[in-house]
Amino acid sequence: MQMKTVSVAAVSASVGLRIHKGKTKVLKYNTNNSNPITLDGETLEGVESFMYLGNIIDEQGGSDADVKARIGKARTAFL
């Protein structure tokens, strides 16, 4: 994953884009690898889950948290 991160950063830089290290999060999916991911000497923050396009994505690949969140939003809307 480290090599892919460096590769994406290099290709992005070649077309004038920069990766904002403060906003970038790392979610390791289905892995026991605990090595930190770094970019330009800075360690990127690792997270257990995050929201992407309205969906909760977690490190186990399950959708339980997403379904529970949607049910909660629907319940709130109808009450």
From TrEMBL:
This is Kinesin motor domain-containing protein.
